[in-house]
Amino acid sequence: MVRKALLSLLSLGAMGLALASPAQDLFDQATFLIGFYYNGPAKVPHFRELRRQYQPELDRLCASEGNRCGFEKARKVIERIVRDIGDPFTTLITQEELINDQRYGAGLGPAAPRIGVWVRESARGLVISEAFPGEPAYQAGLRRGDLITQINGQPATPARLKAAEAEGRPIALSYSRQGSPRSVTLTPRVAQATMQPRLELHGDIAYLRVYHLYSSEEFSPAQLIHDAARRAEQAGARGMVIDLRDALTGYDSEALLAAAAFTGGGGFIYDRRFQGQDETHTVEDGKLKVRHESGDEEELSELKQPYLARLPVVVLVNRNTFNSTEMLAYFLQKAGRARVVGEPTAGALGMSGSAEGPLINGEFIAVSSLRMRNLDGSPFPLRVTPDFIIEEDLEALAAGRDVVLERALELLR
Fold first, then answer.
1. One GO MF term, please (predicted)?
2. Confidence at residue 19, expressed as pLDDT on a 0 to 100 scale
3. Which domains does the chain possess?
Protein backbone atom coordinates (compact mmCIF):
# COMPACT_ATOMS: atom_id res chain seq x y z
CA MET A 1 0.00 0.00 0.00
CA VAL A 2 1.09 3.57 -0.64
CA ARG A 3 0.21 5.96 2.20
CA LYS A 4 1.66 9.38 1.46
CA ALA A 5 -0.15 12.18 3.31
CA LEU A 6 -0.62 15.33 1.29
CA LEU A 7 1.14 18.27 2.92
CA SER A 8 -1.73 20.70 2.56
CA LEU A 9 -5.49 20.66 2.30
CA LEU A 10 -6.94 20.24 -1.15
CA SER A 11 -8.38 23.49 -2.37
CA LEU A 12 -12.00 23.66 -1.29
CA GLY A 13 -12.77 26.17 -3.99
CA ALA A 14 -11.30 23.97 -6.70
CA MET A 15 -13.67 21.19 -5.66
CA GLY A 16 -16.67 23.46 -5.60
CA LEU A 17 -17.44 22.81 -1.93
CA ALA A 18 -20.33 24.64 -0.37
CA LEU A 19 -19.54 26.17 3.01
CA ALA A 20 -22.97 25.24 4.35
CA SER A 21 -21.85 23.33 7.45
CA PRO A 22 -18.77 21.45 8.67
CA ALA A 23 -20.62 18.20 7.90
CA GLN A 24 -21.42 19.27 4.33
CA ASP A 25 -17.86 20.40 3.68
CA LEU A 26 -16.40 17.10 4.93
CA PHE A 27 -18.96 15.07 2.97
CA ASP A 28 -18.19 16.98 -0.24
CA GLN A 29 -14.44 16.60 0.18
CA ALA A 30 -14.57 12.86 0.92
CA THR A 31 -17.00 12.06 -1.90
CA PHE A 32 -14.80 13.98 -4.34
CA LEU A 33 -11.71 11.98 -3.35
CA ILE A 34 -13.56 8.66 -3.61
CA GLY A 35 -15.49 9.39 -6.79
CA PHE A 36 -12.58 11.03 -8.61
CA TYR A 37 -9.74 8.63 -7.76
CA TYR A 38 -11.40 5.26 -7.15
CA ASN A 39 -10.17 2.56 -9.54
CA GLY A 40 -10.82 -0.63 -7.57
CA PRO A 41 -13.06 -3.63 -8.20
CA ALA A 42 -16.32 -2.07 -6.98
CA LYS A 43 -18.63 -0.01 -9.19
CA VAL A 44 -18.27 3.51 -7.79
CA PRO A 45 -19.95 6.39 -9.64
CA HIS A 46 -18.44 9.77 -10.43
CA PHE A 47 -18.24 12.04 -7.38
CA ARG A 48 -21.25 14.15 -8.39
CA GLU A 49 -23.44 11.06 -8.62
CA LEU A 50 -21.96 9.74 -5.38
CA ARG A 51 -22.97 12.98 -3.65
CA ARG A 52 -26.47 12.90 -5.12
CA GLN A 53 -26.90 9.29 -3.94
CA TYR A 54 -25.89 9.89 -0.30
CA GLN A 55 -26.89 13.55 0.21
CA PRO A 56 -30.39 12.65 1.51
CA GLU A 57 -28.85 10.62 4.34
CA LEU A 58 -26.66 13.56 5.38
CA ASP A 59 -29.65 15.92 5.15
CA ARG A 60 -31.63 13.64 7.44
CA LEU A 61 -28.85 13.50 10.04
CA CYS A 62 -28.34 17.27 9.93
CA ALA A 63 -32.02 18.26 9.75
CA SER A 64 -32.17 19.74 13.25
CA GLU A 65 -28.77 21.44 13.20
CA GLY A 66 -28.60 23.29 9.90
CA ASN A 67 -25.25 24.95 9.21
CA ARG A 68 -24.04 23.92 12.68
CA CYS A 69 -24.04 20.24 11.75
CA GLY A 70 -20.69 18.80 12.78
CA PHE A 71 -18.10 16.49 11.28
CA GLU A 72 -19.37 13.41 13.12
CA LYS A 73 -22.64 13.36 11.16
CA ALA A 74 -20.75 13.41 7.85
CA ARG A 75 -18.37 10.78 9.16
CA LYS A 76 -21.32 8.40 9.64
CA VAL A 77 -22.32 8.86 6.00
CA ILE A 78 -18.74 8.42 4.77
CA GLU A 79 -18.46 5.20 6.79
CA ARG A 80 -21.68 4.04 5.13
CA ILE A 81 -20.23 4.78 1.67
CA VAL A 82 -17.09 2.81 2.55
CA ARG A 83 -19.18 -0.14 3.75
CA ASP A 84 -21.31 -0.06 0.60
CA ILE A 85 -18.19 -0.08 -1.61
CA GLY A 86 -17.08 -3.23 0.20
CA ASP A 87 -13.45 -2.84 -0.86
CA PRO A 88 -11.17 -3.68 2.10
CA PHE A 89 -8.55 -1.17 0.97
CA THR A 90 -10.89 1.85 0.75
CA THR A 91 -11.35 3.04 4.32
CA LEU A 92 -11.17 6.00 6.68
CA ILE A 93 -7.82 6.42 8.42
CA THR A 94 -7.58 8.16 11.77
CA GLN A 95 -4.69 10.39 12.79
CA GLU A 96 -3.71 7.71 15.32
CA GLU A 97 -3.48 5.08 12.57
CA LEU A 98 -1.38 7.39 10.39
CA ILE A 99 0.98 8.10 13.29
CA ASN A 100 1.32 4.36 13.85
CA ASP A 101 2.15 3.86 10.14
CA GLN A 102 4.93 6.43 10.49
CA ARG A 103 6.25 4.73 13.63
CA TYR A 104 6.25 1.33 11.91
CA GLY A 105 8.25 2.89 9.08
CA ALA A 106 10.80 4.05 11.65
CA GLY A 107 11.14 0.52 13.01
CA LEU A 108 9.06 1.23 16.12
CA GLY A 109 5.84 -0.11 17.59
CA PRO A 110 2.51 1.74 17.83
CA ALA A 111 2.25 5.00 19.77
CA ALA A 112 -0.36 3.95 22.34
CA PRO A 113 0.64 2.00 25.48
CA ARG A 114 0.02 -1.73 25.24
CA ILE A 115 0.94 -4.98 26.98
CA GLY A 116 2.32 -6.35 23.71
CA VAL A 117 0.01 -9.08 22.44
CA TRP A 118 -2.15 -9.73 19.41
CA VAL A 119 -5.23 -11.74 20.31
CA ARG A 120 -7.99 -13.67 18.56
CA GLU A 121 -11.42 -13.92 20.17
CA SER A 122 -12.80 -17.38 20.97
CA ALA A 123 -15.81 -18.67 22.89
CA ARG A 124 -13.68 -19.03 26.02
CA GLY A 125 -11.75 -15.76 25.87
CA LEU A 126 -8.82 -14.25 23.99
CA VAL A 127 -6.25 -16.58 22.49
CA ILE A 128 -2.83 -14.94 22.15
CA SER A 129 -1.69 -15.17 18.53
CA GLU A 130 1.50 -13.19 19.14
CA ALA A 131 3.43 -12.07 22.23
CA PHE A 132 6.07 -9.51 21.25
CA PRO A 133 9.56 -10.03 22.70
CA GLY A 134 10.62 -7.06 24.82
CA GLU A 135 7.09 -6.02 25.78
CA PRO A 136 5.34 -6.52 29.16
CA ALA A 137 3.34 -9.67 28.32
CA TYR A 138 6.33 -11.52 26.87
CA GLN A 139 8.59 -10.47 29.72
CA ALA A 140 6.00 -11.80 32.17
CA GLY A 141 6.01 -15.18 30.41
CA LEU A 142 2.88 -15.04 28.23
CA ARG A 143 3.23 -16.83 24.91
CA ARG A 144 1.34 -17.69 21.72
CA GLY A 145 -1.55 -20.02 22.55
CA ASP A 146 -2.17 -18.75 26.09
CA LEU A 147 -5.88 -18.12 26.74
CA ILE A 148 -6.79 -14.87 28.53
CA THR A 149 -10.07 -15.45 30.36
CA GLN A 150 -10.46 -12.32 32.53
CA ILE A 151 -9.29 -8.71 32.43
CA ASN A 152 -9.50 -6.89 35.76
CA GLY A 153 -11.99 -9.48 36.96
CA GLN A 154 -14.27 -9.16 33.90
CA PRO A 155 -14.69 -11.55 30.94
CA ALA A 156 -11.93 -10.99 28.40
CA THR A 157 -12.97 -9.25 25.17
CA PRO A 158 -10.92 -7.32 22.57
CA ALA A 159 -12.73 -4.07 23.49
CA ARG A 160 -12.06 -4.55 27.21
CA LEU A 161 -8.36 -5.22 26.58
CA LYS A 162 -8.03 -2.16 24.34
CA ALA A 163 -9.78 0.06 26.89
CA ALA A 164 -7.61 -1.22 29.73
CA GLU A 165 -4.43 -0.60 27.74
CA ALA A 166 -5.57 2.93 26.87
CA GLU A 167 -5.94 3.77 30.57
CA GLY A 168 -2.27 2.97 31.09
CA ARG A 169 -2.78 1.56 34.58
CA PRO A 170 -1.79 -1.94 35.77
CA ILE A 171 -4.00 -4.67 34.27
CA ALA A 172 -4.83 -7.87 36.16
CA LEU A 173 -5.05 -10.83 33.76
CA SER A 174 -6.33 -14.32 34.43
CA TYR A 175 -5.16 -16.77 31.79
CA SER A 176 -4.52 -20.45 31.23
CA ARG A 177 -1.82 -22.42 29.48
CA GLN A 178 -3.04 -25.76 28.18
CA GLY A 179 -5.66 -25.84 30.94
CA SER A 180 -3.39 -24.72 33.78
CA PRO A 181 -4.73 -21.47 35.35
CA ARG A 182 -2.36 -18.54 35.90
CA SER A 183 -2.55 -14.84 36.71
CA VAL A 184 -0.35 -11.81 36.20
CA THR A 185 -0.52 -8.02 36.50
CA LEU A 186 0.95 -6.02 33.63
CA THR A 187 1.48 -2.29 33.10
CA PRO A 188 1.06 -1.14 29.50
CA ARG A 189 3.85 0.87 27.89
CA VAL A 190 4.70 2.28 24.48
CA ALA A 191 6.43 -0.30 22.30
CA GLN A 192 9.81 0.44 20.78
CA ALA A 193 11.60 -1.75 18.22
CA THR A 194 9.41 -4.81 18.76
CA MET A 195 7.68 -5.20 15.38
CA GLN A 196 10.71 -5.71 13.17
CA PRO A 197 11.13 -9.04 11.32
CA ARG A 198 12.25 -11.70 13.80
CA LEU A 199 14.35 -14.74 12.88
CA GLU A 200 14.45 -17.90 14.99
CA LEU A 201 16.47 -21.02 14.22
CA HIS A 202 14.97 -24.34 15.30
CA GLY A 203 17.44 -27.02 14.35
CA ASP A 204 17.70 -26.94 10.58
CA ILE A 205 14.45 -24.98 10.07
CA ALA A 206 14.44 -21.17 10.13
CA TYR A 207 11.32 -19.32 11.29
CA LEU A 208 10.89 -15.71 10.13
CA ARG A 209 8.07 -13.64 11.60
CA VAL A 210 7.09 -10.55 9.57
CA TYR A 211 4.62 -8.07 11.07
CA HIS A 212 4.43 -5.35 8.39
CA LEU A 213 6.24 -3.85 5.39
CA TYR A 214 6.43 -0.15 6.29
CA SER A 215 9.81 1.42 5.66
CA SER A 216 11.76 4.68 5.65
CA GLU A 217 15.19 5.88 4.56
CA GLU A 218 16.59 4.55 7.84
CA PHE A 219 14.58 1.34 8.20
CA SER A 220 13.78 -1.40 5.69
CA PRO A 221 11.98 -4.67 6.55
CA ALA A 222 13.04 -5.91 3.10
CA GLN A 223 16.72 -5.50 3.98
CA LEU A 224 16.13 -7.28 7.30
CA ILE A 225 14.45 -10.14 5.41
CA HIS A 226 17.46 -10.41 3.07
CA ASP A 227 19.73 -10.39 6.15
CA ALA A 228 17.61 -13.12 7.79
CA ALA A 229 17.79 -15.31 4.67
CA ARG A 230 21.58 -14.94 4.64
CA ARG A 231 21.92 -15.80 8.35
CA ALA A 232 19.61 -18.80 7.98
CA GLU A 233 21.61 -20.31 5.13
CA GLN A 234 24.92 -19.58 6.82
CA ALA A 235 23.61 -21.37 9.93
CA GLY A 236 22.84 -24.46 7.85
CA ALA A 237 19.06 -24.15 7.66
CA ARG A 238 17.55 -26.41 5.02
CA GLY A 239 14.14 -24.71 4.99
CA MET A 240 12.41 -21.51 6.07
CA VAL A 241 8.92 -20.69 7.31
CA ILE A 242 7.83 -17.07 6.71
CA ASP A 243 4.91 -16.29 8.99
CA LEU A 244 2.63 -13.53 7.62
CA ARG A 245 -0.44 -14.39 9.71
CA ASP A 246 -2.20 -11.26 11.02
CA ALA A 247 0.48 -9.16 9.28
CA LEU A 248 -0.33 -5.52 8.62
CA THR A 249 0.18 -3.79 5.29
CA GLY A 250 3.06 -1.47 4.38
CA TYR A 251 4.58 -0.48 1.04
CA ASP A 252 4.17 -2.46 -2.16
CA SER A 253 7.75 -1.68 -3.19
CA GLU A 254 8.97 -3.16 0.09
CA ALA A 255 7.03 -6.36 -0.64
CA LEU A 256 8.73 -6.63 -4.04
CA LEU A 257 12.18 -5.99 -2.57
CA ALA A 258 11.57 -8.51 0.20
CA ALA A 259 10.45 -11.21 -2.24
CA ALA A 260 13.67 -10.69 -4.22
CA ALA A 261 15.58 -12.32 -1.34
CA PHE A 262 14.15 -15.59 -2.71
CA THR A 263 13.20 -14.80 -6.33
CA GLY A 264 16.10 -12.54 -7.35
CA GLY A 265 13.80 -10.17 -9.22
CA GLY A 266 10.28 -9.42 -10.38
CA GLY A 267 7.87 -6.58 -10.74
CA PHE A 268 4.36 -5.24 -11.03
CA ILE A 269 2.39 -2.56 -12.86
CA TYR A 270 0.39 0.21 -11.23
CA ASP A 271 -2.67 0.51 -13.47
CA ARG A 272 -3.99 4.01 -12.81
CA ARG A 273 -7.40 5.35 -13.69
CA PHE A 274 -6.07 8.13 -15.88
CA GLN A 275 -4.45 7.57 -19.26
CA GLY A 276 -0.70 8.02 -19.45
CA GLN A 277 -0.03 7.55 -15.74
CA ASP A 278 0.65 3.80 -15.45
CA GLU A 279 3.96 2.80 -13.81
CA THR A 280 6.02 -0.40 -14.08
CA HIS A 281 8.06 -1.26 -10.98
CA THR A 282 10.85 -3.84 -11.22
CA VAL A 283 13.62 -5.07 -8.94
CA GLU A 284 16.94 -6.61 -9.96
CA ASP A 285 20.14 -6.99 -7.93
CA GLY A 286 18.45 -5.23 -5.04
CA LYS A 287 17.67 -2.12 -7.11
CA LEU A 288 14.07 -0.91 -7.42
CA LYS A 289 13.29 0.96 -10.63
CA VAL A 290 10.15 2.53 -12.04
CA ARG A 291 9.37 3.05 -15.73
CA HIS A 292 6.67 5.58 -16.45
CA GLU A 293 4.22 5.17 -19.30
CA SER A 294 6.07 7.99 -21.07
CA GLY A 295 9.15 5.75 -21.21
CA ASP A 296 11.15 7.65 -18.61
CA GLU A 297 12.86 5.41 -16.04
CA GLU A 298 14.34 6.15 -12.63
CA GLU A 299 15.83 4.26 -9.71
CA LEU A 300 13.72 4.57 -6.56
CA SER A 301 15.80 2.73 -3.98
CA GLU A 302 18.52 0.15 -3.48
CA LEU A 303 19.16 -2.43 -0.79
CA LYS A 304 22.56 -2.09 0.84
CA GLN A 305 23.21 -5.83 0.97
CA PRO A 306 20.90 -7.86 -1.28
CA TYR A 307 21.00 -11.65 -0.98
CA LEU A 308 19.53 -14.50 -2.97
CA ALA A 309 18.57 -17.52 -0.84
CA ARG A 310 18.17 -20.99 -2.29
CA LEU A 311 16.55 -22.80 0.62
CA PRO A 312 12.95 -24.09 0.32
CA VAL A 313 10.28 -21.73 1.69
CA VAL A 314 6.77 -22.13 3.08
CA VAL A 315 4.67 -19.02 3.75
CA LEU A 316 1.90 -18.90 6.39
CA VAL A 317 -1.10 -16.63 5.81
CA ASN A 318 -4.57 -16.13 7.25
CA ARG A 319 -7.68 -14.02 6.71
CA ASN A 320 -5.95 -11.03 8.34
CA THR A 321 -2.85 -11.00 6.10
CA PHE A 322 -3.45 -7.65 4.41
CA ASN A 323 -2.50 -5.82 1.20
CA SER A 324 1.29 -5.43 0.96
CA THR A 325 1.95 -8.55 3.03
CA GLU A 326 -0.53 -10.37 0.78
CA MET A 327 1.69 -9.21 -2.08
CA LEU A 328 4.80 -10.69 -0.50
CA ALA A 329 3.08 -14.08 -0.27
CA TYR A 330 1.77 -13.70 -3.84
CA PHE A 331 5.15 -12.82 -5.35
CA LEU A 332 6.75 -15.89 -3.77
CA GLN A 333 3.89 -18.18 -4.72
CA LYS A 334 3.60 -16.95 -8.32
CA ALA A 335 7.35 -17.30 -8.87
CA GLY A 336 7.12 -20.92 -7.72
CA ARG A 337 9.49 -20.02 -4.94
CA ALA A 338 7.25 -20.89 -1.97
CA ARG A 339 4.24 -22.94 -1.08
CA VAL A 340 1.56 -21.10 0.86
CA VAL A 341 -0.31 -22.63 3.78
CA GLY A 342 -3.27 -21.31 5.78
CA GLU A 343 -6.46 -19.38 5.06
CA PRO A 344 -7.29 -17.25 2.00
CA THR A 345 -6.02 -13.74 2.70
CA ALA A 346 -7.91 -10.50 3.41
CA GLY A 347 -8.77 -9.66 -0.20
CA ALA A 348 -6.86 -6.39 -0.67
CA LEU A 349 -4.15 -7.88 -2.92
CA GLY A 350 -5.37 -6.67 -6.30
CA MET A 351 -5.45 -2.97 -5.40
CA SER A 352 -3.42 -0.21 -3.84
CA GLY A 353 -3.49 3.55 -3.52
CA SER A 354 -2.85 6.53 -1.31
CA ALA A 355 -4.08 7.96 1.94
CA GLU A 356 -5.74 11.04 0.46
CA GLY A 357 -6.15 14.17 2.52
CA PRO A 358 -5.88 15.46 5.07
CA LEU A 359 -9.63 15.73 5.30
CA ILE A 360 -10.86 18.86 7.01
CA ASN A 361 -11.55 16.90 10.21
CA GLY A 362 -7.90 15.81 10.39
CA GLU A 363 -8.45 12.27 9.15
CA PHE A 364 -7.50 10.69 5.83
CA ILE A 365 -9.20 8.32 3.44
CA ALA A 366 -7.47 5.45 1.67
CA VAL A 367 -8.76 5.12 -1.90
CA SER A 368 -8.16 2.16 -4.22
CA SER A 369 -6.76 4.30 -7.02
CA LEU A 370 -4.33 1.68 -8.36
CA ARG A 371 -5.09 -1.70 -9.86
CA MET A 372 -2.25 -4.16 -9.51
CA ARG A 373 -1.08 -6.02 -12.62
CA ASN A 374 1.66 -8.51 -13.35
CA LEU A 375 4.42 -7.59 -15.79
CA ASP A 376 2.58 -9.50 -18.53
CA GLY A 377 -0.44 -7.25 -17.98
CA SER A 378 -2.63 -9.84 -16.27
CA PRO A 379 -4.45 -8.61 -13.15
CA PHE A 380 -3.53 -9.63 -9.64
CA PRO A 381 -6.15 -11.79 -7.92
CA LEU A 382 -8.01 -10.10 -5.08
CA ARG A 383 -6.49 -12.45 -2.50
CA VAL A 384 -3.90 -15.18 -2.09
CA THR A 385 -5.37 -18.67 -2.24
CA PRO A 386 -3.05 -21.00 -0.30
CA ASP A 387 -1.68 -24.15 -1.92
CA PHE A 388 -2.84 -25.93 1.23
CA ILE A 389 -5.95 -24.40 2.80
CA ILE A 390 -6.02 -24.98 6.54
CA GLU A 391 -8.27 -22.98 8.84
CA GLU A 392 -6.73 -21.75 12.06
CA ASP A 393 -7.94 -23.79 15.02
CA LEU A 394 -7.99 -21.58 18.13
CA GLU A 395 -8.99 -24.45 20.40
CA ALA A 396 -6.01 -26.46 19.17
CA LEU A 397 -3.75 -23.43 19.62
CA ALA A 398 -4.94 -23.00 23.21
CA ALA A 399 -4.15 -26.69 23.73
CA GLY A 400 -0.60 -26.20 22.49
CA ARG A 401 -0.90 -27.09 18.78
CA ASP A 402 -0.40 -24.75 15.82
CA VAL A 403 -1.97 -26.82 13.04
CA VAL A 404 -0.93 -24.41 10.26
CA LEU A 405 2.69 -24.36 11.34
CA GLU A 406 2.65 -28.15 11.73
CA ARG A 407 1.60 -28.53 8.08
CA ALA A 408 4.36 -26.17 6.99
CA LEU A 409 6.96 -28.17 8.85
CA GLU A 410 5.68 -31.37 7.26
CA LEU A 411 6.17 -29.84 3.81
CA LEU A 412 9.73 -28.80 4.59
CA ARG A 413 10.62 -32.19 6.02
1. endopeptidase activity
2. 52
3. 22-97 (no CATH), 117-186 (2.30.42.10), 198-347+383-412 (3.90.226.10)
